[in-house]
Amino acid sequence: MASSLLTRQLAISLQQNLCLAAPGCRYVSRTATKTVSEFEYDAPSMKTAVPGPKSQELMRQLGEIQNVGAVHFFCNYEESRGNYLVDVDGNRMLDVYTQISSIPIGYNHPALIKVMTNPNNVSAFVNRPALGILPPENFPDKLFESLLSIAPSGMSRVQTMACGSCSNENAFKSMFIWYRNKERGYASPSEQEVGTCMINQSPGCPDLSILSFMGAFHGRTMGCLAATHSKAIHKLDIPSFDWPIAPFPKLQYPLEEFVRENAQEEARCLEEVEDLIVKWRQKGRPVAGIVIEPIQAEGGDNHASPDFFSKLRNIARKHGCAFHVDEVQTGGGTTGKFWAHENWGLDDPADVVSFSKKLLTGGYYHRDELQPDKPYRIFNTWMGDPSKNLFLSEVLNVIRRENLLEEVTRSGKALLQGLYALQTQYPHILSRARGQGTFCAIDACNDATRDSIMLKARNKGLFMGSCGEKTIRFRPALVFKEYHVHQLLNILNNILAEHK
Amino acid sequence: MASSLLTRQLAISLQQNLCLAAPGCRYVSRTATKTVSEFEYDAPSMKTAVPGPKSQELMRQLGEIQNVGAVHFFCNYEESRGNYLVDVDGNRMLDVYTQISSIPIGYNHPALIKVMTNPNNVSAFVNRPALGILPPENFPDKLFESLLSIAPSGMSRVQTMACGSCSNENAFKSMFIWYRNKERGYASPSEQEVGTCMINQSPGCPDLSILSFMGAFHGRTMGCLAATHSKAIHKLDIPSFDWPIAPFPKLQYPLEEFVRENAQEEARCLEEVEDLIVKWRQKGRPVAGIVIEPIQAEGGDNHASPDFFSKLRNIARKHGCAFHVDEVQTGGGTTGKFWAHENWGLDDPADVVSFSKKLLTGGYYHRDELQPDKPYRIFNTWMGDPSKNLFLSEVLNVIRRENLLEEVTRSGKALLQGLYALQTQYPHILSRARGQGTFCAIDACNDATRDSIMLKARNKGLFMGSCGEKTIRFRPALVFKEYHVHQLLNILNNILAEHK
């Protein structure tokens, strides 16, 4: 069902584009400067329980084609605006999960609609190129103006990919290639290596490993999955690699109240990392790279200190392993910095930084040495999608123009303060409130309570995500303001007050 | 540089959309019914050697960001039309490689531009959903009208993915899950399985394998790569799995002249397949699935007979392995059937059929039993991209309206006849012409000659692809007509006549 509201909005936008050439057109810049708060709704508005009857009927239809066990409800994206997601039954919810944290500046942001209606952009959507062999004329410019304008410290090279898993898989591959090139002294591979790699055997396909952390999530293709250890359902029945898995620090919150205890826990984990690197080298599966999230997300919103990451980075350097920071979920401004690793204050934070979700395209940055020595080693048909880079450029413009990182910091403080207040008020239900920017979380006393709170909240117009065993995670868009924080806290408070 | 031609074309299209509501607008249907032949150029037109000076300058710029060793030249996609690719130096080439076989109906097809300028479609581009949890209202309808309208025989289920590698990785995963569920009698996994899978160990992460073929290409993420055996540069330095690799038949061409010899060769390979299945079961790594391309593409355009595939499918059934047909390159009409496996004439051709490229979205069809028993087992953030489904629906409309499969069959016959004539005329240079539809190939006497012919052709306005060791592959769009075949053959003939 086409939305009349959006259609009207778009018709205006199309007319504005068409009158660009006409002198004195007073509508041209209005769409561009309109902020999302002028554009969006004021509050949630609920008409049925969720999923409503229309969602249920569509679920039945889709169930003929796919497993729909994970579907929450069906959406009317045309009518959704800013922080508010509208479903097919006309329910309008404050969305603090944002398509698993992948909507950067809210639904139907006018700036993004403008990208769609700019005639100069049509070709990028209609003719998807094989970027690795036949890039479009503006490709270097678009990379400079989008991804390279936000490159992590020490990195001037970036490779786009289609999704988060492909980004991490190819980052792993570039670490393996880099590691083996070092080992063979940058000489050409031997005939034996060339021969054995064709039949999956060592030394051509060497027994190298990636060290990952318990609780980590890096994706679901088979390389990424071997570094993922968040939930059994992701990994069960899929063959894997014998790679080392270190403990991720289990910290106590609020962090500032448990400085000494947390430092001890982090020291224990770092010691284990070094032990594992030595052990795996001894058993003939040397660690080519270490991969870690700045905050473990899917695994339960687990934090560690800047000191931990700084020391881990040094351990990687000391043992000749590449250091890969997976910012697929933490990147894009949600922690109040564009990259979560900026909070560590390091000039040389990583060898590889991967991204996806809020960046709208997958990919990874890397230091110069990590660039493959030959073409076609890191390659596939599409290698990303230039139409996503167009949207990303505009998202970055909006972030800068509307100072959204400051906004995130402000809203994040209000959100965390509110969560502290709630857990003080309901200590038998909630604990361990934690967060950076709006990347916040709180634990329920058990998974059943967590799930019950989430369902009640949804029926009252607040859509949240879960992670870990009993955690609620908050992943609003960057346009989530203090005003929305108070809406969220009010709904949560009402539910908790009624909770038995 | 924005193209004035395209901008004009688009401005007209936008105006047409805007006047949809106005009565009696005589432009509305013109764009829709315009065929690509009315729209495109007449012939190649060359201004510089390729890559020209502008491409070289852009290559230098992009070289600061990425390895550009695989870049041929930079393109002006705005000015490209139908079968003709225009580069940034103003060279216009007949393109029979089409972005590694991924452009289905030519550049800037008016029908696809119309998708972009339809206000009802904007939301699908601007709000990319997490399809697995919050699908849009029209998602089941769009799947029925696009992917399910072309579903392979026996399959009514489809899962979209972002690219070819993700499609094959997830198809492999669904075969592993299916296989283990069978093995445990559809009972719940044991505590030991749930525990061990979290640390990458058996039995939770079982020692299962996928049987693939020498010369195969199934993608470059680590699961796919373990089933890929086309070129060493793809696999070198990347850890892999101990999975069985069977020989793919090495047939003699033309197929109809070597029926007996080829049947013997195919029997030899099938015998080896059965031996490997038994051997890998004995060594504790049972074959959960067999994966094969209907025509090995990247590996050198290697064909096999319908009888071979039919017997292979029976072997899979006999040994309880899933049978996965990878149609990422062969699918989408290029062989004259929508799926290459239709040429086998089987009612039950496969358990899984994967696709990408010309389908514009990745994904795979599967039989009911291959659907995972629980949600979140086959899952990721985006699980495809509904905006690609919109384009695919329109591509399918064009294929039907313009009878493009018949066109492909006609052009393919003309192309293959022409290649036969050329190899007869230049037997010291060319041999082994082969093909199905326009999915054609011919071998040069060695790789240096092949590469030299391709570069000369490019400078004369014919852009082709290579595969295998010394093969030229033809992968035109479905709008490639007999008229274009003659252009191609004329250029090739001129080059061969001059070839020393």
SSE blueprint and pairings:
2 copies of one chain form a homodimer.
Chain A: H1 4-18, H2 30-33, H3 36-39, H4 53-63, E1 84-86, E2 92-95, H5 98-101, H6 110-117, H7 122-126, H8 139-145, E3 157-161, H9 164-183, H10 191-197, E4 209-213, H11 222-225, H12 232-235, E5 245-246, H13 259-282, E6 287-292, H14 306-318, E7 322-326, E8 352-355, E9 362-366, H15 386-401, H16 404-425, E10 430-436, E11 439-444, H17 447-459, E12 462-463, E13 465-467, E14 471-474, H18 482-498
Parallel strand pairs in A: 2-12, 4-5, 4-6, 6-7, 7-8
Antiparallel strand pairs in A: 1-2, 3-9, 8-9, 10-11, 11-14, 13-14
Helix pairs in contact in A: 8-15, 13-14, 16-18
Structural description of this entry:
The structure is a homodimer of 500-residue chains. Chain A has 500 residues and is α/β, with parallel strands linked by helices. Chain A has 2 domains: 53-109 and 404-498, Aspartate Aminotransferase, domain 1 (Alpha-Beta Complex), CATH 3.90.1150.10; 119-401, Type I PLP-dependent aspartate aminotransferase-like (Major domain) (Aspartate Aminotransferase, domain 2), CATH 3.40.640.10. Chain A is built from 18 helices and 14 strands. Chain A has helices at 4-18, 30-33, 36-39, 53-63, 98-101, 110-117, 122-126, 139-145, 164-183, 191-197, 222-225, 232-235, 259-282, 306-318, 386-401, 404-425, 447-459, 482-498; strands spanning 84-86, 92-95, 157-161, 209-213, 245-246, 287-292, 322-326, 352-355, 362-366, 430-436, 439-444, 462-463, 465-467, 471-474. A 7-stranded mixed beta sheet of chain A has the order 3-9-8-7-6-4-5, sandwiched between helices. Chain A has a 4-stranded antiparallel beta sheet with strand order 10-11-14-13. In chain A, strands 1-2-12 form a 3-stranded mixed beta sheet. In chain A, a hairpin with a 2-residue loop joins strand 10 and strand 11 (439-444). The radius of gyration of chain A is 24 Å and the shape is globular. Chains A and B meet through helix 1, helix 4, helix 6, helix 7 and helix 8 of A and helix 1, helix 4, helix 6, helix 7 and helix 8 of B.
